[in-house]
Amino acid sequence: MIDLYWLPLGAGGRFVAFNGRVYEWIRATREHRPSRALYHTALVVTVPEGRFVIENAWPIPDRDPASRGVVVEGPVWDRRLGRFRAFRYEVRRWRDGTIADAHAAVASPQRVSDDERQARQVLEITTSIPVFVWGRDQLGLGEMWNSNSVIAWTLARSGIAAGDIEPPDGGRVPGWTTGVLAASLETHHDPRAPRRGVRTTG
User: Is residue 196 part of a domain?
Assistant: First the structure.
């Protein structure tokens, strides 16, 4: 089983929530539309061996990635800054893990697949997530690469129609389309496809 969680951006802290509102106000103003609620996404994947939380988080909380099932780390804002832990994000495949803001989730969980094969594919493919710079649009797709891009890419590359998944009414999921399109570029062997996920330490 694969369940998708819609988490209000910044539910766990005022700083993220404030910056999210500013970002959305700027985007809405440029696009001549009302501001919308923003969401961060995470997955819970259940197979006979156990239950796994897949989530992209930043900033990295401490130096013990194994305790959270970290499979990929990447840079935030600028690749050169990635040498510093405060400027790296992590992707977790966390067995028996938790989603910090699950209590605030909206219209969740949303079942996206009951197919065990797809569930296993999601778990396997997390180690191959591309390492784009978080907060940058390196492929020129119109929106930055972020946590939602990671989840959308993972679903799309696992054979799930991520492009058909809609957020809760009145909401928006920045970066989701970027993830779907990036997965399509790799599927068609586009020369702009990025290098695979890597682990960094420090």
Answer: no
